[in-house]
């Protein structure tokens, strides 16, 4: 196995690395096999079959690096994949104990310079909410060792710096969007105690190679990450983004999402240009056991072979797929049934993490 390479002397930005856009070519997608039944109480048995459909669509265009805890998990995954028609030659099983499978937040975050990629360790801490995260926070190190990649440990003022992949959205050209609710709230789920906006922005620039940072307000109700951006706003190309809007003025999401629309008018990209902003609808409120779920069409994942979009048995499913189908002309846009999946307070984008070529 390749030896782990660590780099401490300079930041990725100083060395010429930056975060590539999700629509750029992938070498693989990272996923963590689901095993924590407490994430989907009462529905857990269904979730591996949703993974099977996700993997079937993604693996048509790239390899899958699938994190499993042990051989029993691997055997379960193989069983599911065989039944849904996945080519097992596309799957690399990576054995490592995990707490959960939300790989967007726990997995390796890649940066790139020319043809070289490296990994940034952003020190996942359970969204500053849950206690069981210490296995998950080791995943970037495991990935770096497996792939023989440089591993940068994100720090600010000598302390580990924490963000999650679902909390940042980048166009791969120097612009990053996040929410104040997620990373600037001084009291709730504070990832980096003692750090203000200035320090957080400087650290994001150092480790992701971005030049331009813009803050929206809040995410939708039901999101236990406290405002991840990937449920509300996503780039579809370097100069175009989609932003969700709730049109029912009586819905509790109406006002916070309307504020995001007011703010986005001030966004200028890294070159000073004003982006095109396309409205993406919200599905009707989705509840399970009386709990409002963070159902959003913005939680799509851009793979090499397809864009997979969560759907919710809602009339707006067709509308959202049509809008995204017009925006992504270079690959098909397909829906994945996510009513059961979102009971875990996340969906397709939250579970995936791209590895660029």
Shape: globular
CATH architecture: 5-stranded Propeller
CATH topology type:
L-arginine/glycine Amidinotransferase, Chain A
Low-confidence stretches: none
- How far do the termini sit from each other? 20 Å
CATH superfamily: L-arginine/glycine Amidinotransferase, Chain A
DSSP helical segment count: 9
- Give the strand order, joined by hyphens, for the main sheet: 1-7-6-5
From the alpha carbons, calculate the radius of gyration and give it in angstroms: 19 Å
| H and E order | EEHEHEHEEHEEEEEHHEEEHEEEEEHEHE
CATH class: Alpha Beta
Tell me about this structure.
With 357 residues, the protein is of the alpha/beta class. It has a single domain, classed as L-arginine/glycine Amidinotransferase, Chain A. The chain is built from nine helices and 21 strands. The strands form seven sheets. Strands 1-7-6-5 form a four-stranded mixed β-sheet, with helices on one face. The radius of gyration is 19 Å and the shape is globular. The two termini are 20 Å apart.
Short description, anyone?
With about 350 residues, the chain is an alpha/beta fold.
Question: What attributes characterize this protein structure?
Answer:
357 residues, alpha/beta, L-arginine/glycine Amidinotransferase, Chain A, four-stranded mixed sheet, 9 helices, 21 strands, 23% helix, globular
Topology:
Blueprint: E1 5-7, E2 26-32, H1 47-58, E3 63-68, H2 71-84, E4 91-95, H3 103-106, E5 109-113, E6 116-121, H4 139-147, E7 150-153, E8 155-156, E9 159-160, E10 169-170, E11 175-179, H5 180-183, H6 197-208, E12 212-216, E13 233-237, E14 240-245, H7 254-264, E15 276-281, E16 287-288, E17 291-292, E18 301-302, E19 307-311, H8 316-327, E20 333-337, H9 348-351, E21 353-356
Parallel strand pairs: 1-7, 2-3, 3-4, 6-7, 11-12, 14-15, 19-20
Antiparallel strand pairs: 2-21, 5-6, 8-9, 10-11, 13-14, 16-17, 18-19
Helix pairs in contact: 1-2
């Amino acid at each position: 196995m390749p030896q782990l390479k660590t780099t401490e002397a300079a930041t990725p930005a100083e060395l010429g690395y930056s975060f590539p856009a999700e629509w750029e070519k992938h070498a693989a997608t990272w996923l963590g096999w689901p095993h924590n039944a407490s994430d989907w109480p009462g529905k857990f048995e269904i979730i591996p079959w949703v993974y099977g459909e996700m993997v079937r669509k993604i693996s048509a265009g790239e390899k899958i690096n699938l994190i499993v805890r042990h051989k029993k998990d691997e055997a379960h995954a193989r069983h599911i994949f065989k039944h849904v028609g996945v080519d097992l030659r596309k799957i690399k099983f990576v054995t490592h104990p995990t707490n959960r499978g939300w790989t967007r937040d726990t997995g390796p975050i890649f940066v790139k310079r020319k043809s070289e990629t490296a990994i940034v360790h952003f020190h996942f801490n359970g969204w500053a909410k849950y206690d069981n995260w210490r296995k998950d926070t080791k995943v970037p190190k495991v990935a770096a060792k497996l792939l023989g990649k440089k591993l940068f440990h994100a720090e600010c003022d000598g302390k580990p710096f924490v963000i999650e992949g679902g909390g940042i959205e980048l166009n791969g050209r120097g612009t990053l969007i996040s929410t104040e609710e997620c990373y600037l709230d001084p009291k709730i789920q504070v990832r980096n105690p003692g750090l203000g906006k200035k320090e957080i922005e400087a650290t994001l620039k150092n480790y992701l190679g971005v030049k331009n940072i813009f803050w929206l307000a809040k995410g939708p109700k039901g999101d236990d990450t406290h405002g991840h951006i990937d449920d509300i706003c996503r780039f579809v190309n370097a100069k175009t983004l989609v932003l969700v809007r709730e049109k029912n003025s009586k819905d509790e999401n109406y006002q916070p999402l309307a504020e995001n629309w007011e703010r986005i008018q001030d966004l200028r990209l890294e070159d000073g240009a004003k982006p095109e902003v396309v409205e993406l609808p919200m599905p009707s409120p989705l509840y399970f056991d009386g709990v409002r779920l963070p159902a959003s069409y913005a939680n799509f994942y851009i793979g090499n072979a397809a864009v997979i979009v969560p759907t919710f048995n809602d009339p707006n499913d067709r509308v959202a797929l049509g809008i995204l189908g017009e925006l992504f002309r270079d690959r098909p846009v397909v829906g994945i049934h996510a009513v059961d999946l979102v009971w875990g307070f996340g969906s397709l984008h939250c579970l995936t993490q791209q590895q660029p070529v």
